[in-house]
Amino acid sequence: MTNLTTFDFVLRLAAGVGCGALIGVERQWRARMAGLRTNALVAAGATLFVLYSEAVGDTGSPTRVASYVVSGIGFLGGGVILREGGGVRGLNTAATLWCSAAVGVLAASGRLDLCLIGTAVVLAVHLLLRPVGRLIDRVPQRDPDGEDVHATVHLVCDRADETHLRALLSQALTGDGLAPVGLRVRRDSDDATVVRAAVRVSGEPGRALEQLVTRLALEPGVRDLHWHLDDAPRDAEREPAASPAG
User: Fold this and answer.
1) Same domain, yes or no, for 10 and 129?
2) Which residue, 107, 138, 169, sits at the end of a domain?
3) Segment holding 103, helix H or strand E
4) Helix axes 91-108, 61-78, angle to 10 degrees
5) Is the distance from CB of 51 to CB of 4 less than 8 angstroms?
6) In this structure, what DSSP letter does residue 160 have?
7) What residues does the MgtC/SapB/SrpB/YhiD N-terminal domain cover (predicted)?
8) Per the structure, how many domains does the chain have?
9) What pLDDT score was predicted for residue 239?
10) 41-75 pLDDT, tens digit each
11) Which domain holds residue 158?
C-alpha cells in the first residue's frame, strides 16, 4: 500500500507547480516563447507522473517514470528550437523547460527543500549569468586560424617589361583575401628590376599567393618570381614606392 496521503499529494503538486511558475515568471518577463504557463504546466506534468507512480504503490516506479519524463521533455524542448539562417534560437527555452520538469520531479519525491534549491539555481543562472555572458561577448575575440598573415612577393623582371608587370602585380594584389601594404623597387645594372611587394593575406595564404604567382609567371620578361610568409610586416611596408625611372 502507498503511504502518499491526499495532503502530501496536494502539497507536492503545489510545490512543483509553484516552482515551475517562478521559473516561468522570469521567462515571461523576458518575453520568451515558453513563459509562465508553459513552465508551470511542464513542472505540473512531471510532478503528476511521478506522483502517480507513488500513488499506485510501486516502489520502483518513480525512478523509471522520472526517466520517461526526461525523454518526453526532450521532444517538447525540440519543438521550441528554431533555426534562423546559420544560427539556432530557442536553446535556452528548451533547457529551461527541462529544468522545470526536473523541479517537478524533485517536488514529487517529497524533497521540497531540494526542489526550492533547484528552482533558485535555475533563476540564478538566468538572472546572474546573463550579464556575465554579455560581458564576455564584448571582449574582443582573436581567432589564430582566422588572423591575417603577412607575406612578401619577389619579382625579378627585364627593365623593359617593368611597367607592364608592376601594373599586373598591383591588379593581382587586389584579389580576394589580398591587400597590398608596401612596394619596393630596385633597378640593377644588368637591365633587371627587382620588385618586392608586402602583402596582407586573409584566409589561406598558400592558395591566394600561388594563384598570383601562377598568373604572373606566364608573362614574358619574368626572370624570377616567388613568395614567402613573414613573421611581421617588413621594411617594404614603411618605405614609399619607388618612382618610375626618368
Assistant:
1) yes
2) 138
3) helix 91-108
4) 160
5) yes
6) G
7) 13-134
8) 2
9) 40
10) 989 988 888 888 878 766 566 677 777 777 777 77
11) 149-237
Would you say residue 72 lies in a domain? yes
Q: pLDDT tens digits, residue range 34-50?
A: 788 888 998 998 888 88
Q: Are residues 82 and 172 in the same domain?
A: no
Q: Residue 201 belongs to what H/E stretch?
A: strand 192-201
Q: Are residues 157 and 77 in the same domain?
A: no
What is the rounded distance in angstroms from the CA atom of residue 179 to the CA atom of residue 220? 25
Rounded to whole angstroms, the Cα distance separating 56 from 169 reads: 84
Query: With contact defined as beta carbons under 8 Å apart, do 39 and 24 qualify?
Result: yes
Q: Which amino acid is at 95?
A: A
Q: How far is CA 227 from CA 165, 168, 230, 234, in A?
A: 16, 16, 10, 13
The C-alpha atoms of residue 241 and residue 166 are separated, in whole angstroms, by 11
Residue 46's alpha-carbon distances to 66, 81, 106, 111, in angstroms, are: 8, 21, 9, 15
Q: Which of 116, 138, 160 is the last residue in one of the domains?
A: 138
Domain presence at residue 199: yes
Amino acid identity, position 111:
R
111 lies in the same domain as 163: no
> For residues 39 and 100, is the Cβ–Cβ distance under 8 A?
yes
C-alpha cell at 153: 612577393
In a domain, 123, yes or no: yes
Cell 502530501 sits on residue: 8
Q: Is 244 helix (H, G, I), strand (E, B) or coil?
A: coil
Count of positions (residues) in the chain: 246
Q: Based on the domain organization, do 169 and 203 belong to the same domain? A: yes
Residue 129, C-alpha cell as written in the block: 549569468
Give domain status of residue 245, yes or no. Answer: no
Q: 16 and 100: one domain? A: yes
